[in-house]
Amino acid sequence: MNGPTLITGARGLLAPYLADASRAETDVVLTSLSGGSHRSDLRDSTSVAELLDDIRPGTVIHCAAMTDVDGCERDPEAADRINRGAVANLVNSLDDACDLIMISTDQVYPDVPGPHSEGAEGPINIYGRTKMAGEKAALRHPNALVLRANFFGPSRSEGRKSLSDWLIESLRREREITLFSDSLFSPLHLTTLTELVVVAARKQLRGVFNLGCRDGASKADFGLSVARHLGLQTQSASVGPAAAIPGRAPRPRDLRMAVDKIEASFGTAMPKLDEEIAKL
Q1: Which of the residues 83, 87, 98, 127 is marked catalytic?
Q2: Is the pTM of the predicted complex or chain greater than 0.85?
Q3: Is 127 a catalytic residue?
């Protein structure tokens, strides 16, 4: 289906990167509740229908989400309206010929040792459960692709900070921080992730895929590796368990993702984490 690429979540971390990566191949329209060229409340079915009728996109890349894990736990209804309801509204009004790409999360996996493969889901918090419900809503669309990801890199959105932004700023200002030794993940740099999303769109992949680096590490090892790469001092950082922090929503300790499926589809290996850190 011909038409521009509509990217939701205009003020998030991922959408500006996706917009830049997509413009070489298509016209791009950005939307969010409070930014982008077209403002829309994706929680409202009428607003979504009007948006899609106005834009008539050929592809929708859905990035908008409530990603605050603790916030989702405190307000599950708000999390459901955004993480599931917005996807359902898009699917209900999308032309069947349109491609739908939903950016999902590694938080759909259970609290068991990884790496986790597609099909082994078992979320343990509201964020993961509502995102998984959103995945199921997306997959009702005949041309749907769900990409599970975790990412870092410089923010291009005012007022938003990525994990690496927070880490680098904290170390430079010598703030006391704890780097979690018991929290493992396999993130990609934002530039890598967006390039892969564009390739997946071009290949018209369908179904559910993990998008991550090949190895992964604890967030403590990630933080120390970033510091070494950038020549930052780490005396203000301590290493400790996330489980020792009271009041946090439950989180799986190992969120490393298996990437065999996406590697087979792309015919190439995913990068290693140190290669991704080198892009900072």
Answers
A1: 127
A2: yes
A3: yes
